[in-house]
Amino acid sequence: HYSTFPGTPVWPPSRLDLTYAFSPENNLSDETKAVFLRAFQRWSAATPLNFSETTSFYTADIKIGFFRGDHGDGEPFDGVLGTLAHAFSPPSGRFHLDADENWVITGDISTSSVTSAVDLESVAVHEIGHLLGLGHSSVEEAIMFPTISSRTKKVELASDDVLGIQSLY
Ligand code: TQI
Ligand code: ZN
Ligand code: ZN
């Protein structure tokens, strides 16, 4: 079953149109940005929320960046595997990914020869769940289940994720 954070923080009902931006120093490719777009679309399809990219990083509701090691928020990344990414509950909007991971942004990850390959879209869908107010789920098929098998792509919301997000929005 899904969970929420203590106190059930959500984006206010008056804020159904949320903006996101990528850290300018990351210089991400359009292909990488498209992965995040698809991940946001999975949640907007199940809710009244809409997400749009803005180039104005400092005013964006959701700020996405790849960082390595200690990046100034007291929750340092740890190199390959271990922590992959973290996102904070509403209305923080902070979404950080570990730049040291072997991110896979395209193709069939199950056939990757890199044992530590991590599917970016799967992690993005999971972290956006946290950004919107979902905690972890006990349902293994759910996006919000707290573990994922290596070299696995899991990007489709399970009914448990949909029930969870629809309880919030
Ligand atoms: N990052 C953890 C996560 O997002 C960070 C975390 C631990 C956390 N406990 C939390 C965030 C409680 C919010 C609330 O779950 S992670 C997975 C999964 C991670 C793990 O790097 O371990 C995914 C990131 F589910 F596959 F294990 C993304 Cl998809
Ligand atoms: Zn961080
Ligand atoms: Zn999580």
Can you tell me about this structure?
This protein is of the alpha/beta class and 169 residues long. The protein has a single domain (17-168), classed as Collagenase (Catalytic Domain). Helices cover 22% and strands 18% of the residues. The chain is built from 3 helices and 7 strands. The strands form 2 sheets. A 5-stranded mixed sheet has the order 2-1-3-5-4, covered by helices on one side. It has a two-stranded parallel ribbon with strand order 6-7. The model has no long low-confidence stretch (mean pLDDT 96). Bound molecules: ligand TQI and zinc ion (2 copies). One zinc ion is lined by residues 126, 130, 136, 146.
| Termini gap | 17 Å
CATH topology tier name: Collagenase (Catalytic Domain)
What kind of assembly state do the chains in view correspond to?
A: single chain
Number of strands: 7
Number of domains: 1
